[in-house]
Design a protein that fits this description.
Blueprint lengths: L2 H23 L8 E2 L2 E2 H6 L17 H9 L5 H9 L5 H7 L5 H15 L7 H8 L5 H14 L5 H10 L5 H14 L12
Antiparallel strand pairs: 1-2
Helix pairs in contact: 3-6, 6-8, 7-8, 7-9, 8-10, 9-10
Length: about 200
Amino acid sequence: MTKRRRIVLWSAAALAVLGVTVWLICPSGPPDPVYNGHRLSFYLSVLPPSQDWLNTDLLDSNAVPYLVHTLKQHDGSVRRAYIRCYPRLPAWLQNRLGYPTPAVRRKFTACGFLGGMGPTARPAIPDLIQLVGSSEETLARVSAIQALSRIASRNDGDVMACLATASKDADISVRTAAVIALQQLDPRIGPNDATMP
C-alpha cells in the first residue's frame, strides 16, 4: 500500500470517527427509548429488518415520536458517501462503527413497528400519509401503506383519500398495496372500485 493511500484511508477513518462522535454527543430529535435492553435505534438498524428481534407488543406510545422522527430522516451527501466508503474500511474500523443502515431501510422497519402497534400509533398517521405521497423508494412507500392499513379505520377520510390516490400510482407495487389496504379498511370496497374512498 502506498504512503498516499494510507494517508487517505487514515484521514477517512479519522473523519468517520469524528463524525460518529459528534453524532453521539449531539443527538437531535426525540428521546430514543429502550426496549429489551436496547435503544429503539438499534432495532431500526438491525439487518435484515425482517428479523423478529423486537416484539412490537412491547412497544408503547413512547416509541411513536422516535419512529415518526425516523420517517422524516434522509441520507445526506456525507452519509451517502459514508455508506459507499464503509465496505472499503478496514474490518476493525467497520466493527467499531457499525453498518450504516440506509434511511430507506430504517423507514421500512419504522413503518413495520408502527403498523404492529395498531391504533396506539395513530399520531403517526399524518407522517405516514406524507411518506406514501413522497418520491421515496417503493419499499418505504409500500411499508407506509401497510402501516396505515393496520393503524387507521375506514372513518379516517385523509387515509382513505391517500390510499385512493396511491391506488392510481405509476408504481405497480404502490398501486397493489393501496388497493389491498383499501379493501382491508373497508371490506365493502370491491377490486373494481378500490380506487374509490
